[in-house]
Amino acid sequence: MMVELSGGPLLEVDGVTLQYRTKRNLVTACYRIDFEIHRSDRFVILGPSGCGKSTLLKATGGYIAPVEGEIRLNGAVVRRPGPDRMLVFQEFDQLLPWKTVRQNVVFALTASGQLKGREADERAMHYIDKVNLSKFADSYPHTLSGGMKQRVAIARGMAMEPEILLMDEPFAALDALTRVRMQDELLALWEETRFTLMFVTHSISEAVKVGSRILLLSAHPGQVRAEMNSDGSDPEGPDGMRLSARIERMLFHEGTPERETENV
């Protein structure tokens, strides 16, 4: 059950620095990141490769602990993974290959202890229908296209009815036409259910289209360069093209990031 806050943010990222260790050294992925996400935001994190976008998403999911700062959900510090934050990755092999579409979604509900039996099956089918896969409910993952597998992963995440859905470049491995269609389907699903989304991408056009708010990170180590309002602008329309051009200039701007806000 969602906890309502009187006007406060759902998610707070407060001065967060994240590091990970390689075989050779300790790498700072992002440095002193600050932002807030409110309910029903489509919050996109955009930046060049290696700026810590995915690491920040995993930290929000509770899989990586900050070395500095805090991540808070509904005011409580995030310390571990939980069903209130569901992750969708870009890999197509995130489904259990020996289970059908329906069974994959049901399994997430029963394994988490949220629902059992008929209730789990009914909720699973509800969200499978939302992503237009009812006809494939009894199909196995190997029979599905890449886009269909991603829709199953989205249905599985949505079925958990999390506080926030975390998506890590979920359409990056798809062909261009399928990627555009998946963006459209994600926005249509959001219009219907108004879930809260935190979405990572390195594509400017995808960020402009999917996001209502865009956080722009600098190159490694990632720091906040700007936060912009997009509200799902058409990347090919006048507003979207202006915003895309501004983002592109900032991505290639040298120097220390300075936070700024722009409304489009």
Automatic annotation (TrEMBL):
Entry's family note:
Belongs to the ABC transporter superfamily.
Which segments constitute the ABC transporter domain? Answer: 11-244
Origin: domain of life: Bacteria
* Lineage, uppermost ranks: Bacteria, Pseudomonadati, Pseudomonadota, Alphaproteobacteria, Hyphomicrobiales
Organism encoding this protein? Jiella pacifica
Q: What is this protein called?
A: ATP-binding cassette domain-containing protein
Sorted alphabetically, which keywords does the UniProt record give? Answer: ATP-binding, Nucleotide-binding, Transport
Gene3D superfamilies the record matches: P-loop containing nucleotide triphosphate hydrolases
Matches recorded under PANTHER family: ABC TRANSPORTER ATP-BINDING PROTEIN (PTHR42788:SF10), TAURINE IMPORT ATP-BINDING PROTEIN-RELATED (PTHR42788)
Keyword hit for RNA-binding:
no
| Annotated GO MF terms | ATP binding; ATP hydrolysis activity
